[in-house]
Amino acid sequence: MCAILYMLPWVDVTEKTVYFVERFPAFVWTEYFSEPFEHWYNIHEYAPLFIFFATYLGIVRNKKIPHVARYHVMMGVMLDIVAMILIVTEENLPTGVLWTPWSDLFYALMFWFIFLLVIYCLFFCFLGWYCEIPLISEGVYLQIEQAEQLGQ
């Protein structure tokens, strides 16, 4: 169940990296992972916000769920925040940069960055281990610790 939330950043990124996938058709298969989740993620404009609060209040703050499961759920949310930062950066690029080869490079880097992070985290999630990513893991530990303190 924890691995499902790693699809949130992947859904966000696949919407923006369509040009990269069209340019390199060998990576079309990567879009098939996000298709089942796109419907639920885009069903309403507030669906991402609802998903965030449902996972945070229902899973991360629930001490009955093992810590490693709560860690991976929060890691999926944090990776989604990282993906959103990349998307907001892309949307606010000047038009002079947006239609140049630099934008293709940005889309490729965004695709590979999130793709490799999701694969890395899924690997450790399926093993039941903690995956350590500098800065992001620290934020996840802090969020879980705060959630535990608020739940007391």
Automatic annotation (TrEMBL):
Task: Say yes or no: keyword Transmembrane helix present.
Answer: yes
Pfam families xref list: TIC20
Domain of life, source organism: Eukaryota
Transmembrane regions listed in the UniProt entry: 39-59, 71-89, 109-131
Where in the cell is the protein located?
Plastid, Chloroplast inner membrane; Plastid, Chloroplast membrane
Q: What does this protein do?
A: Involved in protein precursor import into chloroplasts.
The entry's protein name is Protein TIC 20
Q: Which organism is it from?
A: Chlamydomonas schloesseri
